Queue: 3 jobs
Job 1
Amino acid sequence: MSRLAVPKTYKLFIGGKFPRSESGRTYEIVTAKGAFLANASKASRKDARDAVKAARTAVAGWSGATAYNRGQVLYRIAELLEGRRAQFVDEIQRAEGVSANAAEKQVDEAIDRWVWYAGWTDKYAQVAGNANPVAGPFFNLSVPEPTGVVAMVAPQESSLLGLVSVVAPALVTGNSVVVVASEQFPLSAITLAEVLATSDVPGGVVNVLTGSPAEIAPWLASHSDVNALDLAGAQQLDWVDLQIEAADTLKRVLPPEPDVWPSLDRITAFTETKTVWHTKSMI
C-alpha cells in the first residue's frame, strides 16, 4: 500500500526557536526542474523586528564569553555540520540542480570555512589590536570589540557556502546576527538553523529569516537597534538606497560582493576599536 508524503514547511529561526511567520505566509521551494520540494515561511516586517530584538538580547552573553569558549562553540557547529553532511548534499543537489560532486564540494568547503573562522576567535585580537607608543609613563592599548547586532543579506546564488561565509566571521568576535537567507535556495539555511539549535550557541545569537530580501532588507537597514549591515547578497536590490537608510542610524555597511572569500578583513569589518590608557607602575 502506497503512502502519502508529508510536505515539510520550513520555519523561521528566531531567538533559538522555530516560529512560523506572524503573517502566516509561505512560499513554495522547487527543484531545479520545477518539482515541489517544500514550503518555506515568508518573513514579514514584524518577524524582522522580532529577530533584531532576539539578537540584541543575545549580544551581551555571547560577546562576554571568552574567546576560547566562542571558539569551542564554533568548532562544535562544524562537527554537527559534518554529521549532517549527507542531508546538506542532498538538499543542495536537488535545489540547485548540480551534480553530487559539486554539492559535496560546496558542503565540504562550507565546513572547512567554518573551522577556519573558529580558529580565529582567540587570535584576531592580537592581529587587529596593538600597543601604541605614547609620551609619558602610560600603557596605551587598542583592542577590537564587537559592533553588536549585524543584519545580513546572504549571497543568493548559494545554498550553504554563501550563508556560512557571512555568518561565521561575524560570530567570531561576539556579534549577533540576523540573516536573510537565499530566497530561491533557503533549505540549507534552515537546516543550518537546526544545527545551531542543537549546538551550544545561545538562542538569539543567530536568527535566520526566509522570504524576500527586497521586502525585509529595508526594514533591517533602517532599524535603529541594528549596528551594522552586510549587503553581500544584495546585488539585485537597490542597495544604494539601503546604504542611505543605514546612514540615518550611523550603521557600518559592507557593499555587495560577487564572491565572499574567507579573510581577516571579514572578521574585523564588524568590530570597533577601543583604546585604553593605564598608568605604568613607578615601583
Job 2
Amino acid sequence: MKLRLILFLFTFIILGSLPARAIPFVLDFGGLKNTEQVLSFYDGGTGSLGSGPGPNYGITFTPSFGAVSAVPPYGPSLVGQLNGPSATMDVSGGFNLLSFYYEAADNSGSVALWSGLDGTGVMLADISLPTSATWNAAGTAFAGTALSAVFIGTSGTKFDQITDAGLVIPEPSSLLLLATGLISLIPECRRRLARRVAHT
C-alpha cells in the first residue's frame, strides 16, 4: 500500500513539474483567398474577403500581411506575404519558439520577436532573413515568452508553415519542487530495498 502511495506521489511530482504546453500552431494560409489580408482568420475570425472562420489560435495580423497564390515548400498553394515594409503577428497565448519557410527574392529582411503585443516590450530574438530567391527554413528558440513577431522586409517577401512548438520553460520553483520530491523518496526506497534483501 505504501509503495503505491509513493509511486502516486512520485508521478504527481513529475507531472506537476513538467513544462506547460500551449496549443501548437502551423499557419499554412489554407482556407484564405488569393490577395486576402489574413487579419483575424487565425483568431477564429475571418480574412478581409470574408474567408473563415479560421482556427482559433489567438493570432491576429496587421493588414499589411496577406495570403497569395504561390508554390510553397509543401502544403496548399497559398502562402503568406508581406505587403509593405513590415507586418505584425500578435499571439495572445505567447510562444518561445518560432520557425517558418521564407522567400525574399529582392532584399534581405528579419523577424523580430517581442515580449509585448504589437511589437512592444523587450526584443527577445531577431531572426535574420538573407536574400533568397528560393525557399529557406528559418527560426529560433529563445528565453522568455514572446507575444508578437514583426516581419520586416520588402513587399512581396513570402512566408509559409509559420510554426510554434509552444514549449514553456519551467520556472526555477518547479524544478526545485521536482528535486525536493525526488530526494524525499530516497530514504523510503532504501528501507524497502533493505527489507526485500533481508527476506530473501
Job 3
Amino acid sequence: MTVVPSAGTGSMIIPEHVAIIMDGNGRWAAKRSLQRLRGHEQGAEAVREALKGCEELGIRYLTLFAFSSENWSRPVEEINHLMGLFRYFFNKEIKALCDANIRVKFIGNINKLPDDIQKLIEEIKDRTKDNSKLILTIALSYGSQSEIAGAMRALGEKIKAGELAPEEIDESMITQHLDTVDHPDPDLLIRTSGEKRLSNFLLWQCAYTEFVFLDVLWPDFRKQDLAEAVEEFGSRNRRYGAL
C-alpha cells in the first residue's frame, strides 16, 4: 500500500492490489430491455474505466474476474458471444495496453478455452511481458476451489516422489503452488451489482482482504466508483487479527 496526497483529506491510502468481481452485465441489459449479450459488450468499456482509474491512483495490480469455471454451464449462445468478445477485446486493446505500459497475465484453466483464444493469450503475455506500470491479471475459466485442489495435487505428487514431507507443508508453501504465485494478495476486493459473496474467486488469497460491495452494475462502473471504493478502503483499520 502507498499513501498519496488527496485534496480535502490530506492523504489517501492506495491499495497495492485491487481485485474486482465484475457483476451485473445481464441485469444492466434487462433493465434496458436488451439482450444479455449487450450487457457484456458494455462491460468492456467498464474495464477501460477501471484501468484508467488504477493508472490515476497508482494501483500496481488489478485482477479481474472475467469468466468463471461455473460460467461454462451458461447457454451455448452466450458462451460463444463471450468468447467472441474476448477475441475482439484482446485484438483491439493489445496496442493500447502496450502503450500504457501494462503487463497482462492470466489465471485459470486456460486449456479449456478455444485454441485461437489460447494463442491470443500467449501473444498478449509475450508482447506485454516487459511492461511494468500496472500488472493486469484476467481470470478466465477460473475457479478458486479448483485452483486450491490443483495446489494440493501438486504437493501430493511431491510427497509421493519423496521430495516433500507432509509436516513441511505450511501456508507459504500452498501459496507458492497457486496460480497467483507472483502476485501479492489483494488488499481490496470490489464486487459490483450489490451482491455480497465471493463466488469462488481468490478464496485463499482474500483471507485478509477488505471487501467493498457496490450497488452499481458493472457496465455503469466508472473510475470514480473505483476512487470511492479506495477511499472506503483507506478509512478502515486493518488489524490482521491483532488489537
